[in-house]
Design brief:
Elements: E1 5-10, E2 13-21, E3 26-31, H1 32-36, E4 41-51, E5 55-63, E6 67-71, E7 74-79, E8 90-96, E9 99-109, E10 115-121, E11 124-127, E12 139-145, E13 148-149, E14 152-153, H2 154-157, H3 161-164, E15 171-174, E16 177-180, E17 182-183, E18 188-189, E19 192-196, E20 206-208, E21 214-234, E22 239-245, E23 247-249, E24 252-254, E25 262-266, E26 270-275, E27 280-290, E28 296-307, E29 315-318, H4 321-336, H5 353-366, H6 371-381, E30 390-391, E31 402-403, H7 404-421, H8 425-441, H9 449-468, H10 472-486, H11 499-506, H12 524-536, H13 541-547, H14 550-554, H15 576-585, E32 588-590, E33 597-600, E34 609-616, E35 619-628, E36 631-637, E37 643-649, E38 653-656, E39 659-661, E40 664-666, E41 669-674, E42 680-685
Parallel strand pairs: 33-37
Antiparallel strand pairs: 1-28, 2-19, 2-21, 3-10, 3-18, 4-9, 4-11, 4-12, 5-8, 5-10, 6-7, 6-9, 12-17, 13-14, 15-16, 20-28, 21-26, 21-27, 21-28, 22-25, 22-27, 23-24, 29-34, 30-31, 32-33, 34-35, 35-36, 36-42, 37-41, 38-39, 38-42, 40-41
Helix pairs in contact: 4-5, 4-15, 5-7, 5-15, 6-7, 7-8, 7-9, 8-9, 9-10, 9-11, 11-12, 12-13, 12-15
Length: about 700
Amino acid sequence: MPLPMEEFLPAGRVVVVGRCKPPEGRSFSFDLGERFGERDAVAYLSTYLWSGGSQEVELSLGSSGGVKLWVDGEEVLSYHVHGRAEPGQHRMRLKLDRGWHQLLLKADHSAGEWKVYLDLEGDLGVSAVRDLGCGPCWMAIGPFENEMVGDECVGFSTRYPPEEGLDFGSVCPGKGGEVEWVPWDSVAERMSEEEIEPSEFHEGEMVIPAGEPTAVVLDFGREVVGFPRISLEAPEGTVVDLGYGDELEGGRLVPPEGKHYADRYVCREGVQEWETFGRRAFRYVQLTFRRATGPVRLGEVGVNLTGYPVRELGSFVCSDELLNRIWEVGRYTVKLCMYDAYESDPLTHIQRPEDTRTEALVNYYAFGDYKLISRTLRQFARSQGEDGMLREAYPSAVPFPSSPRASALWTISLWEYVLYSGDSELARELLPCLERALEGMERYEGDDAETKVFYAGALGAASRMALLLGDEAGYAKYLGRFNALATSTDIHPRKECGLADFLAVCFGVGEDAKVPPEGLSFPPYQLSYVAEALLKMGRKEALEVLRGWGRMLEEGATTWWEDWEGGARCYGASSGPTYLLSAYILGIVPIKPGWRRFRVMPRPCGLEWAEGDVPTPFGKVSASWRWEGGKFRLSLEAPPECVAEVGLPGRGELLRNGRKVQAKEEGGYLWCELRPEGREELEVSPVGRHPPPRT
């Protein structure tokens, strides 16, 4: 396998510079998820506030879920909104007399982080035991049940024992067993922050002042993958923390959900340069400088980009600029997911058959590489268990379960590799694994419709490989099973439109599926199947489905996300439109292994023109088509080793380089076969006088 490429990219701009300062009041942060580790739960926090006299204090709360707050038994705040916790989301003022005041806080959780921020501004003491000289500041109890019924979190409105009366010595039933009040030892008082005027690097450097911690947020302008590098001059012992992420809130870095994604570098005295030992995937980097006894001169900050070495041999442009941008972003997304394996995303480094198939298809049209996918297919084969099934992800330190879907998609990917590369030897090498996988999948014929369709797709792929390898018995066996499944009544379109209906069209099990109704939502990596099915059916709605990826562009995406709300921010399997635009809109697909025979069948779907290049083992296939003066015209150039089956939409006569040729009309297209001789010009023209047919 070729060595990874490397290229240095400096940071694009300074987003913000902020400096920590001691808080004016008391500021606390609570990570309830770390303490209780439960989903769909409720917990309580409690303490006493000491007021030295009558005063009005300001209290502000921020939380990731619903919160209720009582002061001296009186409910003073209640809200129930789930999202990311931010300090100061809710503010209120309280009048407190001299003495101790009981504070009880209830927080609920359903998914994601479970955090609470609390700020108190005023002359206050805090103690859970009403003694400012000793004991814990806070007590906590939980978790309690928070079952979801519809959209309602039942636990949020349920009065659990702490609401009936505060007794730190009590024990009561909770979620999963008895719970009791315990000291919250890990409570952290938060520092507040002041923003420093952002400044660009002056003559190649930025000066960080000594004293309190200072943070600098830098933007690389797009998602990048590589080894971050910093150069600086600093006093000995200065600590530099580097945090990485894909999004900002209020100018501050938001870490990837559930991950502490950071590095720490402790400086020696003087000028130095440091590069991380591991790859990082991010758009933004936050550098936090701590324990600096003198000024820090920050020089160049950048990333040593790294990835699988590919050349951008494929291209696609059309009359719709949004679709052009969608094609390019898909190419870039898959490029970032190619290293020593096809990674689902470069943050987790997981390799899944389900994601790899889409990534490989994009690669065939964008880069034309065959080495990485052949390595990947061999690796997946090594995960095969005694039951014949392949693992959902491999290789991995975590033993992922095996599944029929992973096994089916591996089989389909193997055939597609043979089809695009022309290398039948890999299929011959992996044939024993393929046979065991298909035998194992027989046990899942009674499973859900989606599993059946994937299995049928695998049988179709296996029958074509068996025929290619001269295995007539295998061909007959797999084709027979495929036909039996294809006629099964529970595998075809149903009253309620679902993913299985579109998968059936994609894998040749069905010919028609309903257009998805409004409100039916699929994540991007599944929506590619919907778009492909609509394209195969010749439905113009397919382009509207593909334009839907523009929603992510509107949100500032530079790579495709795992789902519409975010998830993984660089997810290769969401790049299906790049493959679909080249294969269906430009209309170029192989029909014999290695592109020795290929099909050109443009699907305009309302577009005025499209053009592009597709890499093959023999060189590029270049095509451009357009509607012009009511005629459909195609310009085609291909390697001489290839034979083209060309279908142009319309009725009339088919002209090749200005001369009429014999053509067959089928499905609204005029078809002819040709071996390209240089650049070929074809057009569909209304019936009339033309030069005699070309012989």
